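Quick one:
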Amino acid sequence: MRRSSRSVCVNNAEAWHKRRYPAHWVSKLSDSEAEAAETQTWLKFAVECGYLKPEHETELYNEYNEIKAMFVSMILHSEGWRF
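Output:
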């Protein structure tokens, strides 16, 4: 979970620095979205293994849904982010 959650930030930083190149920009944003989805999967495992209370998982899971929605919006409107 640590690796995937940190990777969301790292891929987003890489995307920002590659925003001049449309294909790279979208690719890195897609990677960020995928890592966020992976983190959500690890949250589910954490509850099943008893490491995390379900109410905490729900809150974090919903926050990652918002994060993924932001990435999707940035992908769909990528031209507005490039210079």
